[in-house]
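[User]
If only I could read backbone structure tokens as easily as an amino acid sequence. I have put the entry right below:
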Amino acid sequence: MAVADPIVIRSHGANLYAVKMRDGLLLVDAGWPNSLPELRAGLDEAGLRLSAIRYVVTTHAHPDHAGLMQKLKSYCGARLLVHEVQRDSLEELNRFFVRKPDRDFEPIAIDAADLVVGSPSWEALRAIGVDGEILETPGHSDDSVSLLLSAGDAFTGDLTRPDMATQEQAAAVAASWRLLLERGAVRIWPGHGGPYAAAAIEELLGSRGWTGGQRD
């Protein structure tokens, strides 16, 4: 699936991406629990409807990236696309909202209608019309994943740039970026801010002497 420009919906400082698949849309990240109006407006502007969303995947289970997942499942029949490393963190997100109630949040429930993938995931994604894979890319959080399409578009959520990584994050961040580059990432679509060339990451890694998550 060659996707040059996904539909970008900016909501409360976060980016949501609607990627065209074989039949409908794959939504990458789901925003805050109250972000449905922004999502609907962004799709309307592109001439699309919420009902076109077939799958919803989150790059990590933080409130600004996964808060709307269950509501989309209930509201328009979307299915959740979940990497197995995210099961526990999605449950933790449910517990977070028990401690901090939000009337717009619907607890996330993974059931038989949803698609849970492991690594490698490309075969499972191809079966639903997505030519790409979900890669484990920890660094920002242990459950962080990135969607990498065969065209080289990488949706990385909050994966920390190498020049912004703390000492504690550095090894995991470098390894995650190396994985994306080795698998063919060309353009980065982050969870916040605008897209940029993956070559910028390779340059940052090289300038720090990081190879495969290790400092040479």
